[in-house]
Amino acid sequence: MPGENLTRDEAQERAALLSVDGYEVSLDLCSALADTAAEPRTFRSMTTIRFRCAEPGAASFADLVAPSVTAVSLNGKALDPGEVFDGSRIRLENLQAHNELIVDALCAYSRTGEGMHRFVDPEDGEVYLYTQYEPADSRRVFANFEQPDLKAPFRFEVRAPEGWTVWSNGVGELVHGVWKFAETKPISTYITAFVAGPYHYVTDSYTRTLDDGTTLEIPLGAMCRKGLAPYFDSDDVFLVTKQGLDFFHDHFDFPYPFGKYDQAFVPEYNLGAMENPGLVTFREEYIFRGKVTEASYEGRANVILHEMAHMWFGDLVTMEWWDDLWLKESFADFMGAFALVGATRFENGWITFANRRKSWAYRADQLPSTHPVTADIRDLQDAKLNFDGITYAKGASVLKQLVAYAGQDAFLEGARRYFKRNAYGNTRLGDLLSALEETSGRDLTTWSRAWLQTAGVNSLTPQVILSAEGRVTELAVLQEAPESHPELRPHRVAVGLYRREGADGSLVRYARAEVDVDGPRTVVGELVGVDAPELVLVNDDDLTYCKIRFDENSLDTLRERLGDITDPLARALCWSALWNLTRDALMPARDFVSLVLRFAGRESDIGVLQMLHAWANSALVQYATPEWRAEGGRLLAQGALKELRLAEPGSQHQLTWARFFATVASEKADLHLLLHLLEGTAKVDGLDVDQELRWAFLEPLAAHGVADEALLAAELARDDTASGKRHQVRALAARPSAAVKAQAWAQVVESDALSNALVEATIAGFSQPSHRELLVPYAAKYFAAIERVWAERSIQIGMDVVKGLFPSLQDSQETLDATDAWLTAHEDAPPALRRLVLEARDDLARALRGQACDAAAGS
Description:
The protein is an alpha+beta fold. The longest helix has 28 residues, at 831-858.
């Protein structure tokens, strides 16, 4: 990794010097099927780049990460590859005003999901290829200038094994054994793409009459491995795709600019998806092999729309450098939810956004590595780590606040002007703000400084004063900020007042006011004189980005009547606020678990219910005092089993409770029930124990020593697929044995034989909460290994190891001290590595504070 980094300064210097007229890239992928044990397995890559230089006679460099270079030619002169290529860069000297660079190289197939990933399907032996580049891995496939502001048109051609199909950004056709693709529009290197192999492929089309009377027709395609074809619900994928295209055409007034629209669901994918224009790639787990809840379909639809929004925000108009990554990711995250609610059947998308996406942002914004939405990205390693909850979910939340602040019509008109002015170009923060200022009539300089250029999350707390007659005499909103990030921001918020009404005692909103909160205390004059509330909900309707706090009366109401709140968004906001109180050591973990046990069974929104299960498990594993964990686990298992039996047979709530029960089951009777459900000797009316649910039951059985290697091998024989293999590897690593843990550690840390997907599965199985004692020896081993792993492995694998194997289950002051000792002794370690360790340290320190809070409640 060290020799492959690119700094912002280097990129700026190169962008000032060079401009690129076009690429011609020729790949030979026939070696993908070669019978060879040689490593690395390689393919031939031929690249011609035509570019201009603003200062003839100057020097620069091209990017290429490859095992070897066969030939390099610059302006007709052959260069010695051994002299000009150092493994990651090709030195270019004495450039002319107009230049032609030709590079003939052998590039390596990847097993880490970076560059040209090669996957062999264990089910049928078929080979599948796809590329993944962001932020800077196209240089692993062809020579280029790897930075987002050196855009250019690309012409690709690919030779592939007979019987294969190859896809790229443009329309392709097979000509005399070679796939040739239409030239792209000017795009950045990191969003070029290839998918190749015997994929199952289905087609459709989208047609729209534009305002000028012309007809726009977009060919649609969707693909997956042949083994997943029986499960591929392409009709639903195309339905959401067409709804999204209609929505964005209605709102953006700029026709989709990239011709066709293919969507590839590919194996062993590191991300959720990637917005390559004309060829979007997704992780194949979005093809559901078993029964899933509506939340899973909503999640997939959101990702489809998120990537589609990138066709405008990111692909048509691209940030100059990764500092302004938010210009694409924040907008796509916001637009994904905006389109989800506005165009599809998933009308509760903003509830999911408030409950799930924003919880990601709140966590990231309280880490020591938090940063402004517009970040300071010094190099590519910084960029890789900045695909985080700040850039995505906080940025999207800030845009939601901006829509409330400036108005939806003004916001969308600003976006339309932004597209038209900057089409196929690169932008910075100011380019967007100037367009939004024009359309909104607001000066956004102060707003931008507060929301985009400072870090940290504010807390908003209601302060209520009542008269003797039980009416509100004053209601104010108090705003606080942490000492580390003291910025108090302007917030457009709604304040809702709730009370019991009706025979069933439902908690409903009876008064609401919108107000601009600014400074430490803001009075809400509109609510003076109304009847006393039982619950005051600041940020009702989720207009701003903040941590919601409660006055004591409201908190007491939630403890007793949370399930009586009728509005699902208000209820979701309250759950999120209570979870933040738990994470901040202001509410004991056992109290949060108690709330879940009392009220989660009444939760109607399945996505919120799934989030509550995840939070309850985290409360038990991280924030509960060790002395209470066994009791807490027993209570959660009892509660989950009760709700499982009460749930409507065959419902998604039943499935969700079944999965949660498996997660928290630990006592002999519960484990035997799981085993009998697997064997078919026990049944829950309506519960279909399909293959995916079988694996969900098998992992806890393996972790508690009930499922042995033979049983897991038998299950793999039943499900001898790529998905089955991942599940088996995870369950094997989950077994409670010192020898098993040693083997898993060696496979991940001491070897690079496993693919990225199997590394991820092994790490997940290795770290079982019930195995704290077994994992004690690995705390010291972790700190001894991570710097070497970071230096020797790809950045993706390095991130997986450093995050996934941190000894968080050794939650003691001793582990915290060991982390601090490593940080002190490794001040010169790569900043990205230090950031990951600092984040893990912060999570551990937060867990210890939470445990102290919980212990005080139990004493």
